[in-house]
Amino acid sequence: QFFDMNGVYKSNFGPTSTVRFYFASPQGVAFEYSKDPVPVLSRMYVVDTYNANVQVINPAGNGAPLYIAGTNPLNNYIGKYGNMNGEMMVPSDVVFDQQNSRLMVVNGFGNITIFGIDGGTNPAENTPPTLAIDPVLANVSTPDITISGTVEATANITVATSTTAIASPVVFTSSTTWKCDIIGLEGGDNVITVTATSATGSSTQQSVSVRYTLPAPTITLSPSNIALTNKSNLVISGTVDAGSTVTVTNTATSITGNATVVDTTWTYSAALSEGANLFSIAAQKPMSDKAFASTEITLDSIAPALSVSALANGSYTSTQVQNIAGTVSDGGNVNLLINNQPVSISDSTFSSAVTLVTGPNVISIVAVDAAGNIAVDSRTIHFDSTQPVVHVAAPMDNSITNSTVITVNGSVDKTSTVMVSGVVAAMNGNEWTAEINLQAGLNTIEITATDLYGNSSAVKRSVVLDSVKPILAISSPSQDIATNNPVITISGTVSDNSDTVLMYSVDGMTAGVPITAGSFTFNLNLTKEGMYPVLLTVTDAAGNATSATRNIIYDITPPKLTIDTFKGVHPSAMTGTVEPGAAVVVKNIDISVGNVTVDSVNGTWAANLHGIAYKTKNLTIVATDVAGNNTVKTLAQAGTGKTR
């Protein structure tokens, strides 16, 4: 029976009967529409539980049966009773699949029986299979890798690459896991595509990109590269694998440039800055890692500082042996030559003798540092033994003083006038004297005597003015101390620009102390109790002196300690007297207990032992003075009602 949307009865099909075209037990109905642009109801299907079939009804008119093409004889029903394919038992419902032209009947066997209508069939399975690729490193340094993952069971796996890399046959490690070896990755990016295909032909693709970084090239530095130079531009070189590019960075100047690479040789013209220049050299081939090398080159374009103390250029002298002295300094090692003969340098100073020949003598002083920088002092001194002979009584040549004014005196062998560094000397017969102001450091004092005929002769004195006191530091003990040790080690440091002498004085005795590399140490023996003021004095070559005192108190007498009377066997409080400056502790066996206070002004002590459990025989009172001497008393010794 059919009703409209308002519940009004409209029609009735199929009287109940077991005869064909009649229903015995209709249980469900389905409708089929045409596939026209505007669908039209074309068939009605009724499932009959009792007859175990589906009857086809024309929904137009009075609902006449529709015969099914291909049946013989022509029938208007689908299916029949039975348990074979296409047969049903107690069917209960029906639905028509408009998309695939299928009639699906709920069968009493617990399944669904499907009938194709007008050539309708079951749709092909088109759901893509599930596929996953395990995480793969984005950058690798080896040409062969293995990829793996999971896939839906029964699906097939194929692997392809975007380069010449070869994908080996896929190996299934289980029904849903797989792996594949990729051989021969190309340098750079390699896209690996994995395709999973189901039995019905549907597929899923996943891709990963792997960048293969080729091994770094080999780069070397030429052994001919130097570490120290006085040239502001220098070529550094080395070898590298063919096809590489080489980049050089000077970290001192932040300048980066590309080296010239020819076959397996690279060269780079480097601009240097004064001081240390650290070069970082990087080599790389296309798609490769970088190789690094480094070298440090120091530019030293500054010549040594050379100061010469000798007769001035063009001087005349009757003294045949001339002293050539001076100072030379540089940041590194310096070699000194006087007339091509090596001269030793000590603490930046030098002194050498040159024997003159009659007539002009060229004296060349050359200082060469490790970088090849040269400082030159060249002067000509004329030797004539017939010239006035000048004798200098004071000062000595190459002497050191701490006085800013120095008296220079001596004599001349004939009547002459004498000039001392531009100052007219006072003459007393053939003796002369002058006072000269000195400048800090090396001073060249030139004394020139000129006789009545205008003949002159000169000599020089090299004098160093050093008015700076040496530095003295006592490091141990770092301050005044009290001790019960009869032997005390005293050590420290001394620094000065010249040679120094260190002396110490104690208890009326004075002794020298050796200095080694600016440090000193010596032992002081203490024989009797008392204070030992130890005075140390260091004196440099110019006579400048620095002193320091360290006071040592030698005390081997234990401090005085008393315990006041107390009550009971286990007192909770105790008092007594103690030597001023000593500390007091109360110990139970070896552990400090209680709260002890000491009144250093009055020389008393007090201990609060409230709440502390102890045995009388284990309790001790210990007084320790600043020198480390101890006095120990026990509670058992003190006794009840007694004073100790």
Mean pLDDT: 91
| Total number of strands | 62
Quaternary structure annotation? single chain
Number of helices: 1
The best one-word shape is elongated
Radius of gyration, whole Å: 58 Å
Report how far apart the termini are. 130 Å
Structural class: mainly beta
Largest sheet: 5 strands, antiparallel
**Based on the structure given, which CATH architecture of the largest domain is correct?**
Sandwich
Instruction: Classify the fold: give the CATH topology of the largest domain.
Output: Immunoglobulin-like
Beta percentage is over 45%
CATH class of the largest domain: Mainly Beta
List the helices and strands and how they pair.
Blueprint: E1 2-3, E2 9-11, E3 26-33, E4 41-48, E5 53-57, E6 77-78, E7 80-81, E8 87-88, E9 93-97, E10 102-106, E11 112-116, E12 131-133, E13 139-140, E14 145-151, E15 156-161, E16 166-167, E17 171-172, E18 177-183, E19 188-197, E20 203-212, E21 219-221, E22 228-229, E23 233-240, E24 245-250, E25 255-258, E26 260-262, E27 265-271, E28 275-284, E29 290-299, E30 305-309, E31 315-317, E32 321-329, E33 334-338, E34 341-343, E35 349-355, E36 359-369, E37 374-383, E38 390-394, E39 399-401, E40 405-412, E41 416-420, E42 423-424, E43 426-428, E44 431-437, E45 441-451, E46 456-465, E47 471-476, E48 481-483, E49 487-495, E50 500-506, E51 509-513, E52 519-525, E53 530-540, E54 545-554, E55 561-563, E56 573-578, E57 583-588, E58 591-593, E59 595-599, E60 604-608, E61 619-624, E62 630-634, H1 635-638
Parallel strand pairs: 7-8, 13-20, 22-29, 31-37, 39-46, 48-54
Antiparallel strand pairs: 1-2, 3-4, 4-5, 5-6, 9-10, 10-11, 12-14, 14-18, 15-19, 16-18, 17-18, 19-20, 21-23, 23-27, 24-25, 24-28, 26-27, 28-29, 30-32, 32-35, 33-34, 33-36, 36-37, 38-40, 40-44, 41-42, 41-45, 43-44, 45-46, 47-49, 49-52, 50-51, 50-53, 53-54, 55-56, 56-60, 57-58, 57-61, 59-60, 61-62
